[in-house]
Design a protein that fits this description.
Layout lengths: L5 H4 L12 H12 L6 E5 L6 H13 L13 H8 L5 E5 H4 L2 H10 L10 E6 L6 H12 L5 E7 L7 H4 L3 E4 L5 H14 L6 H11 L3 H14 L6 H8 L4 H12 L3 H13 L4 H20 L6 H8 L4 H11 L4 H20 L3 H13 L1 H4 L2 H15 L6 H5 L9 H4 L21 H25 L1 H7 L3 E6 L2 E6 L3 H8 L1 H15 L4 E6 L5 H4 L4 H8 L3 H9 L12
Parallel strand pairs: 1-4, 1-5, 2-3, 3-4, 7-8
Antiparallel strand pairs: 6-7
Helix pairs in contact: 3-4, 6-7, 9-10, 9-11, 10-11, 10-12, 13-14, 13-15, 14-19, 15-17, 15-18, 18-19, 19-24, 19-25, 24-25, 24-27, 29-30
Bound molecules: zinc ion.
Length: about 575
């Protein structure tokens, strides 16, 4: 018997087997029943969620001896050949392999030939957005006057890169990201059929790491099957993938909620010693707090179980434990923690001292009552209120500089000539072109991460105050730093000794003798005032989809604007 990878062996062969895309299969089924056939179809969505499988099933539907039918027989010669991948009537072209020039040329030469066995010649073009302009033009000519026996099925992970002239000739189907519970369902079936023993938390850990891609999940399951002797458990998965065990995240969060900074740091250090990646650890904690927040916010939702299966990527048996932990906090407090972690994560991703930043964030979270009185917390929530209610951002308050924000320029300004080796391009201040602006703010922020790291080694408490601050602009010899709107932050950071220390480190790392000025960070940004779709917003801002999901979910604001590169 020939060896087949699991993903191929268990590839869905009918629309009924295709999971997680009911909107696609229902529409196609109805169209096939009514014999309303399109000339070209476009399947778009993330990788590994069934686009190519759906394309092959559709090809079978069209060319089955009983077809066109939504339920191909899977036994006639045409169906059998398509399953085996050797049908002469179904031509698969990989747009990514050589950008399709030769294939599209031969497509144009062969497109007129009649099909051999089925009713149609079907061209499946995978990653169609990768085709060259030349190939697109050739394709377009065929699409404009296709012979009646020709069908096209395009698959792409980036429909926005497909020319509009092609898109306009296609019936488009958007494939959805698969929920963790859906991926786990398929993995359990595969495991059972393969006589593999795997615990549910292990399957959830695989699904989380695969991030919605069923194919990736199946590949991981297969790897585990080959090196785990006996039952596959969650630690096997996290050891293989370098991810973090859910139980450990519970303990980590427990230490934070206990205000036990030492224990929280010990957990972190132990993980790093095991070789865990700092951004993955931060992302793990972020995800955990997000889950707690969802649980806490859906307490009284009628169809809670269904909702949780969609939103929380943890097995149902763990939900009770998370519920207990979530009950130790309030949704308001969890939002604050999440906001802090999201801000820290963004710095961690670009910092050479990622571990220090994460340590700072953990210390800050575990000692947060000292930083953030209830009064400050409620003021902060008050600031968020307008954007939550979808009202215009409270501009007058947010743009108002705080009491201590302006340093008298005459006393402290350094002549521009004193800047011998500026680390960033100070010659293009805010009115510059937007991409330059982004590059500038990116460079400012990258150095800022180092500033935090170095300050952390000199005076941890000071660095902790600056965790929520962001460099806004560097004009001449003045670095303007935005602070959250708490009077406490402004007071502490403006104390003479602290100011001196900050100025020293900032000047050293930005490579010029600088003066630091403080201003108040705006409470909201355009994104939160007019939320776009998660994907588009994520694409635009370059933040990870998960952070963007969180931002969208809670209508929160990322405190800086990372560039898309
Ligand atoms: Zn058939």
């Amino acid at each position: 018997m020939t060896y087949l990878p699991l993903a191929r062996k268990y590839r869905p062969q009918t629309f009924a087997d295709l999971v997680g895309q009911p909107h696609v299969t229902t529409t196609l089924t109805r169209a096939l029943e009514q014999k309303r056939l399109g000339q070209a179809y476009l399947f778009t969505g993330l990788r590994g969620i069934g686009k190519t499988s759906a394309a092959r099933i559709l090809a079978k539907c069209l060319n089955c001896a009983k077809g066109p039918t939504p339920t191909p027989c899977n036994t006639c010669p045409s169906c059998a050949q398509i399953t085996q991948g050797n049908s002469l009537d179904v031509i698969e072209i990989d747009g990514a392999s050589n950008r399709g020039i030769d294939e599209i040329r031969s497509l144009r030469e062969t497109v007129a030939f009649a099909p051999t066995l089925g009713a149609f010649r079907i061209y499946i073009i995978d990653e169609v957005h990768m085709l060259t302009m030349e190939a697109f033009n050739a394709l377009l000519k065929t699409l404009e006057e296709p012979p009646a026996h020709v069908k096209f099925i395009f698959a792409t992970t980036a429909a926005n890169k497909v020319p509009a002239t092609i898109l306009s000739r296609c019936q488009r189907f958007d494939f959805r990201r698969l929920e963790a519970s859906t991926v786990v369902g398929v993995l359990s079936r595969v495991a059972k059929a393969e006589k593999l023993k795997a615990e549910e938390p292990a399957l959830y850990a695989i699904a989380r790491a695969a991030d919605g891609s069923l194919r990736d999940a199946e590949v991981v399951l297969e790897q585990l099957a080959s090196f785990v002797d006996g039952t596959i458990r969650e630690p096997d998965v996290t050891a293989l993938l370098g991810t973090v065990e859910s139980e450990l995240l519970v303990q980590w969060m427990e230490a934070i909620l206990d205000r036990d900074a030492t224990k929280a740091l010990t957990v972190l250090t132990a993980q790093i010693e095991q070789g865990k990646d700092v951004p993955l650890l931060a992302m793990g904690l972020l995800r955990h707090v997000r889950n707690l927040l969802i649980l806490a916010s859906t307490k009284d939702t009628p169809s809670r179980e269904t909702l949780l299966a969609q939103l929380v990527d943890e097995p149902s048996e763990r939900i009770a434990r998370l519920d207990t932990q979530g009950a130790r906090s309030t949704p308001e407090e969890l939002v604050v923690i999440l906001q802090m972690l999201a801000g820290a994560y963004d710095l961690i991703r670009r910092s050479p001292v990622a571990q220090t930043i994460l340590e700072l964030a953990i210390i800050k979270l575990a000692t947060r009552e000292q930083w953030q009185s209830l009064d400050a917390l409620s003021r902060r929530l008050e600031q968020w209120a307008p954007s939550v209610a979808d009202a215009p951002p409270a501009l007058p308050r947010s743009t108002q500089p705080a009491r201590s924000s302006t340093t008298p320029k005459a006393a402290t300004a350094v002549p521009v000539q004193a800047l011998t080796a500026p680390a960033v391009d100070a010659a293009s201040p805010s009115p510059a072109h937007s991409s330059e602006e982004t590059a500038l703010s990116d460079s400012l922020l990258a150095t800022w991460a180092s500033v935090l790291g170095q300050l952390g080694s000199k005076k941890m408490s000071l660095a902790a105050y600056l965790m929520e601050a962001r460099p806004l602009r560097l004009e001449g010899a003045i670095l303007t730093v935005g602070l959250p709107g708490f009077a406490l932050h402004h007071e502490v950071l403006s104390e003479a000794e602290n100011r001196r220390l900050i100025t020293t480190v900032v000047s050293e790392l930005y490579g010029a003798s600088l003066t630091v000025e403080y201003t108040t960070l705006p409470a909201g940004s355009e994104e939160s005032a007019a939320p776009a779709s998660a994907g588009a917003a994520a694409e635009r801002s370059g933040v990870s989809p998960m952070v963007q999901d969180i931002v969208n979910l809670f209508n929160a604001t990322i405190m800086d604007r990372p560039s898309a590169t």
